[in-house]
Amino acid sequence: MTTARPALDPELSELLAEMPLMSHLSADVLAQLRLLPSAPVDSLLEHRKVDRREITVPAKDGARIPLSVFSPADIDTTAAAPCVYWIHGGGMVMGDRFSQLDIPLEWLDEFGAVVVSVDYRLAPEATGTTLVDDCYDGLRWLAEHAAELGVDPARIIVAGASAGGGLAAGLTLLARDLGAPAIAAQILICPMLDHRNTSISSRQYSGVPGVWTGEMNAFGWRALLGDLADDEVPAYVSPALAEDLSGLPTTYVDTGSAEVFRDEDTEYAARIWAAGGQAELHVWAGGFHGFDALYPQAQLSATARRTRTDWLARLLPRTSAA
User: 208: domain range?
Assistant: First the structure.
């Protein structure tokens, strides 16, 4: 029996037809993907007046975690700026702090925000809570050095895409439970939230080639969980397991109707509402996983990105140049 699936947006479908797709990941394929060059950050910065700073901060186990700090070159030092703490995607197994960086850099342009991007360690070399702990250590350093960076510690927004969205959700839960650092809002872009991989959308996007499939999702989670038994998985790693979603900062969640994470993402937003929290949810009809990052020129992508920025504008004032 053929599995029914929501149709792709026509423009995105044409663009996707030109992209090589696969349905499974393996250790050998992952090794090849990791050989691909990092995202071209210099081309993103060449038309912007941005000061860039590269630092490392210590993890709990003594490892060094790279952070990239991007600040508007003409930042008003008399007024602390908002900050976007960016967590990249890559299925927990690939990518780096420059992946999808064009998304938060738009908020640097729009709001004069300082962007701090974290290079957390990857699975399978790192497992369990290591990835979210790395993100937490980077966020704690950011909060402790806010004055030095010209950042308003009351306006730190945690944001991430795909695996980074899942890590952003886990990080926000962890910061809530530890009582610090303060997070003003979280932006979860097609987040990877549930290791169980059993939703209807997970099944709909298994057995077919895609940008991120149910089989690829299972590979990423297996790499991250390592030897953890199913009943040992912490909610900070798989945020859909969290029993209590109260006390979270205002949240933005978006996803596509034609992607593996659709159902776990919509359920997460609904559970925030059920706990009395505030969340805005957008499910983009015909959007596949990561559509707005892969094809920002598409009309649906431009709409999704603009809507996300407009939501953020309700929290942050625009720069005078915007």
Answer: 10-313
Q: Identify whether 74 is part of a domain.
A: yes
- Determine, yes or no, domain membership for 320: no
CATH of the domain at 300: 3.40.50.1820
- List phi, psi (to 5°) of 57: -125, 155
Give the neighbor-by-neighbor strand order of the sheet with 114-118.
Answer: 50-58, 64-72, 114-118, 81-87, 151-161, 185-189, 250-256, 279-284
* φ and ψ at residue 221, rounded to 5 degrees: -70, -40
Helices (H), the chain: 10-16, 27-34, 41-45, 102-111, 130-144, 146-149, 163-178, 200-204, 214-225, 262-274, 291-294, 299-313
Cβ pair 182, 153 in contact under 8 A: yes
User: Could you read off the pLDDT of 36-76 as tens digits, one per residue?
Assistant: 888 789 999 999 999 999 999 999 899 999 999 999 997 66
Which residues make Cβ contacts (< 8 Å) with residue 92, sequence separation at least 6? Answer: 122, 123, 131, 163, 166, 192, 220, 221, 223, 224
- Report the relative pairing of strands 50-58 and 81-87 from DSSP bridges: unpaired
pLDDT tens digits, one per residue of 204-259: 999 999 999 999 999 999 999 999 998 899 999 999 999 999 999 999 999 999 99
Residue 216 belongs to some domain of the structure: yes
Q: How far apart are CA 171 and CA 160, in angstroms?
A: 11
User: How far is Cα 189 from Cα 256, in angstroms, rounded to an integer?
Assistant: 10
Q: C-alpha distances in angstroms, 9 versus 119, 149, 211, 293, 301?
A: 33, 41, 15, 15, 10
Structural contact between residues 197 and 233, judged by C-beta atoms closer than 8 angstroms: no
Can you tell me the distance from the alpha carbon of 194 to that of 179, in angstroms, rounded to the nearest whole number? 24
Please give the structure tokens belonging to residue 263. 């159902």
The total of structural domains in the chain comes to 1
Q: At what angle do helices 299-313 and 102-111 cross, to 10 degrees?
A: 50
Q: Distance of alpha carbon 130 from its chain centroid, rounded? A: 17
Is there a domain that residue 5 lies in? no
